[in-house]
Design brief:
The complex is a heterotrimer. Chain B has helices at 2-32, 39-56, 61-89, 94-116, 140-162, 164-174, 176-181, 186-209, 218-233, 238-259, 262-288; strands at residues 130-133, 136-139. Chain B has eleven helices and two strands; from the N terminus they run H-H-H-H-E-E-H-H-H-H-H-H-H. In chain B, strand 1 (130-133) and strand 2 (136-139) form a beta hairpin. Chain C is globular, with a radius of gyration of 20 Å. Chain C has 14 helices and no strands. Chain C has one domain (8-236). Classes of the chains: A alpha/beta, B mainly alpha, C mainly alpha. Chains in contact: A-B, A-C, B-C.
Chain lengths: 269, 289, 327
């Protein structure tokens, strides 16, 4: 069932290795993964029925939920001598600094902050946010103005001195915040949910560009067309573990499994 | 050994009302999720109104406390309609709601001072007869109060855990929409809870106030402990509140006897409570990250 | 220039106004920016006040020394300056301890933690006779200089306090315009989101709470000098109430909120009503303090019900961003 492609792909990207990891809520095992590596391919899809444990798995990777057992490790690409890091021993806030970033499925925003604020918050480094750095705003803005404007233009976001208004704007802003963190491993949780088609295209394009520049991208998405279009590799999750792995074509070949979990009509797509 | 026995006697007779107050407070907290600072003044109100009825109309203490309790309950309901219900309808946030209750507490406390004066007031009760238990003098009025507190606490416990009304309260506290769907009238139940909480607080105040002088800060002085007992006992767990309340009374008496200094004993107990809350918070975090 | 119109009472009233504005700025950072509910403001302020009295070398009214008697190698004004600094540090340690206890706790925990701290400070001030003089209090705290009359000394101290509060205000104003302020706001608004962007939210709040608590202690120490005499009665809930009312009334999210709020509350009562209103004397002694508290309490309820963001309204990050970064 599992394709043995690992050896043939050069490890040029950051990967996340999940080993012996389990999580249960009030006695019910939600995730139980023996050994799984994410990020060996530029873009990977993570799919599965509701309740398969995808969201919990992502929360485990970001260590925003405690593991019952097992480890989650960030494995650096070959040639990067910074060494591997066990993420499941670190606090949640340490992830972004290590380049492990996740977008939010539900709309999340800072109610009182503008889009400029959100973006500047992302790009600001800890030493620029020290209590006595009261003149750090102008240099910070100058340093990052170009890339911020780039993303604003890319997603056609206007009036950055205002709060993000619509749900769509908030969703895009969430993605922009994550992109500005310059992730080496990016988890996207239903990035196109609720977006109109043209913006879905934009998000997909952004993902492709990011992946091409060396970031490992893992997408969780209910819209399987996005997955089939975008992914180089797909992980199919059900009942807490990954039961199928392969290219989109390979996964779609397992018609019976996919239809059993996702219902009919998804494989044709 | 003597110390322990004496602490139990003093803890129960002097701090018994704490159990009643904390139960009323917990009931309210459970329904609204709100730390209602003005609950402190419900306690003070009970003490003052009881005193007023007792001294003005010549009713004995045992008769005066009931109208006082009902009045405290009604005023508690009145604060709900005057402040908390409109605030909830306006979607006032939780922090703002706590600050509002703080404001209300101040208004009520100083209004009481305005009405009843700055100094100490006293119930008119017959000269204190009593008996000695483990070398501790216990007045009759305090012992009978303790019996009443215990009975009321048990009644309240039974009411919340076993009766249909209690069931409705618990249903409304856990899920308002669901409760509404299953035919519970939220307003009636809410008013009921504010009333019961006020009665419990008012009675606690009367029991606190009798036997010694008290003034307008009576409830406020007890409020920190009412709040701590409720949080430590576990707001969802009335049994825990009862145990924490009794335990607090006994521990503070023991510390006071041992250190011969009530204020230092109080400081130590507050510190212990805070340490406990911190330890509990950290263990919760362990589970959640 | 004649300063006759400036009575000693007026100087003291002005000092209170200035001090409360400073406290308002500090609570603004805790509550208005980072969303920490501090119901024990008087605890941190009082800790600074008492720490100053003890460290500086105040004595019980009877003249007996307290347990702690530092043999200062230098006299005033250095002794007072060193004492103020140490008192500030002591209050900061209190802030660090309570900040750590309430870190990660919800509003209920914050309420209990800060409120409990204020109770502890009060009880210690009242019970530790050797350390704090208990009910008798601490005396012997005069101005660390003498430039003439009591009024002149007080005026100079008012100027020093004003300079400090202006500095605190300027810092607060700059914080709104710096990445640090944004970090505080983000932490106060959506902690999980801030964490996911790499911000150590608990640590951020803890340090901010520590530093602002130290600031409250600094103002408490300043107050100790101008009142000369400390008693536990000064540690009442009215201090906390006054700061909260001023902040809520003016606008908790705005830099100028505390300024407007204090002028309309402390300024109105401690200066206008106290010194210039034509009420009979007996009113001032009995009714006025009570009426003041009732009005403060009422205004909390009314403002939060009908204008929850205070007179100045909500934070206007959009205007701010437009003004500093353009469109």
């Amino acid at each position: 069932m599992v394709t043995e492609a690992t050896d043939t792909v050069a490890a040029t990207r950051s990967r996340i290795q999940i080993q012996g990891a389990a999580k249960s809520f009030s006695g019910r095992t939600v995730v139980d993964i023996d050994d799984l590596t994410l990020g060996e391919y530029p873009v990977e899809g993570l799919i599965g029925p509701n309740g398969a444990g995808k969201t919990t798995l992502m929360r485990m990777i970001m260590h925003s939920t405690k593991l019952d057992r097992g480890t989650v490790t960030l494995v650096r690409p070959d040639g990067d001598d910074r060494g591997d890091v066990v993420l499941s021993e670190l606090p949640t806030y340490a992830m972004a600094g290590l380049g492990v970033v996740k977008t939010n499925q539900v709309i999340m925003d800072f109610e009182k902050l503008t889009m400029w604020d959100s973006m500047l918050l992302s790009v600001a480094k800890p030493k620029q946010e020290l209590p006595f750095k009261i003149f750090a705003e102008a240099p910070l803005f100058a340093e990052h103005e170009e890339e911020m404007r780039h993303y604003l233009d890319f997603f056609s976001l206007t009036d950055p001195a205002d709060q993000a208004g619509s749900a769509g704007e908030k969703k895009l802003l969430d993605i922009v915040r994550c992109l500005l963190l310059k992730p080496s491993f990016l988890l996207l949780d239903e990035p196109t949910a609720g977006l109109p088609d043209d913006l879905t295209e934009k998000v997909m394009e952004a993902i492709r560009l990011l992946a091409a520049s060396g970031t490992s991208v893992v997408v969780v998405e209910h819209d399987l067309n996005v997955i089939w279009n975008l992914s180089d590799q797909v992980h199919f999750m059900a009942e807490g573990s990954v039961i199928l792995q392969g290219t989109p074509e390979e996964i779609r070949r397992h018609e019976t499994v996919v239809e059993k979990y996702l219902g009919e009509g998804h494989v044709g797509g | 050994m003597d110390l322990i026995a004496q602490s139990i006697v003093i803890g129960l007779t002097e701090h018994g009302p704490l159990v009643l107050a904390a139960m009323g407070f917990a009931l309210l907290y459970r329904l609204t999720g709100l730390i209602n600072v003005a609950f402190a003044e419900t306690v003070t109100l009970g003490a003052y109104i009881g005193m007023w009825i007792n001294t003005t109309f010549g009713l004995t203490f045992w008769l005066a406390i009931w109208p006082a309790a009902i009045a405290a309950g009604l005023i508690s309901v009145a604060t709900y309609f005057a402040v908390f219900r409109p605030a909830k309808r306006r979607d006032v946030g939780m922090l703002e709601m706590i600050i509002m209750s703080f404001g209300l507490s101040i208004v009520l406390r100083y209004s009481l001072q305005f009405v009843f004066g700055y100094g100490f007031v006293y119930y008119d009760v017959p000269a204190q007869q009593g008996w000695r238990v483990f070398d501790v003098g216990v007045s009759r009025i305090k012992s009978v109060s303790l019996v009443i507190v215990v009975v009321l606490a048990l009644v309240l416990f039974w009411f919340i855990q076993k009766t249909e009304m209690g069931q409705k309260i618990r249903a409304l506290a856990s899920d308002e929409k669901l409760a509404q769907v299953s035919g519970i009238n939220p307003l009636a139940v809410t008013v009921m809870v504010w009333f019961i909480a006020g009665v419990a607080g008012g009675l606690a105040g009367a029991f606190y106030g009798v036997g010694q002088g008290f003034k307008y800060t009576l409830g406020w002085d007890q409020f920190l402990f009412i709040m701590l007992v409720m949080l430590v006992g576990g707001a969802k767990n009335i049994r825990g509140v009862i145990i924490a309340g009794l335990g607090t009374g006994i521990v503070i008496s023991a510390l006071s006897l041992w250190l011969k200094d009530t204020q230092v004993a109080t400081v130590i107990l507050i510190a212990l409570f805070m340490a406990y809350l911190k330890v509990r918070q950290r263990s919760l975090v362990e589970g959640k990250v | 220039m004649s300063t006759d119109w400036l009575s000693s009472a007026l100087v003291f009233g002005l000092f209170e106004v200035v001090m409360y504005i400073g406290m308002g700025f500090l609570l603004h950072m805790q509550l208005g920016l980072a969303g920490i509910g501090n119901f024990g403001v008087v605890g941190f302020w009082g800790l600074g006040m008492y720490a100053y009295g003890i460290i500086y070398g105040g004595h019980a009214p009877s003249g007996t020394d307290l347990i702690i008697d530092i043999p200062w190698p230098f006299g005033d004004p250095w002794q007072a300056i060193a004492s103020v600094i140490l008192a500030t540090l002591v209050a900061g340690l209190g802030g660090l301890l309570i900040g750590w206890i309430i870190s990660g706790m919800d509003l209920d925990g914050q309420l209990v933690g800060t409120f409990g701290f204020a109770a502890i400070v009060f009880l210690l001030a009242r019970s530790q006779k050797g350390l704090t003089g208990s009910e008798g209090g601490i005396g012997g705290l005069d101005f660390p200089y003498d430039i003439g009359s009591e009024k002149a000394n007080a005026m100079l101290w008012l100027l020093v306090a004003s300079a400090i509060v202006i500095a605190i205000g300027y810092y607060t104003w700059r914080v709104h315009r710096s990445p640090y302020g944004r970090l505080l706001i983000a932490t106060g608004q959506n902690e999980p989101l801030a964490r996911s962007l790499g911000k150590p939210s608990n640590l951020t709040k803890l340090w901010m709470f520590t530093v602002t608590s130290a600031g409250m202690g600094l103002l408490g120490a300043m107050f100790a000098v101008i009142v000369h005499f400390l008693t536990p009665l000064k540690l009442g809930v009215d201090v906390t109430l006054a700061v909260i009312v001023a902040l809520i009334l003016g606008g908790a999210a705005r830099v100028w909120g505390p300024v407007i709020g204090v002028l309309l509350t402390v300024g109105l009562f401690e200066i206008v009503v106290q010194l210039y209103a034509p009420f009979p004397d007996s009113w001032y002694r009995q009714a006025m303090p009570v009426v003041k508290q009732i009005i403060y309490g009422m205004s909390l309820i009314v403002v939060l019900m009908y204008r929850p963001l205070g007179i100045l309204g909500d934070m206007r990050r959009d205007k701010l961003m437009r003004s500093i970064h353009g469109d």
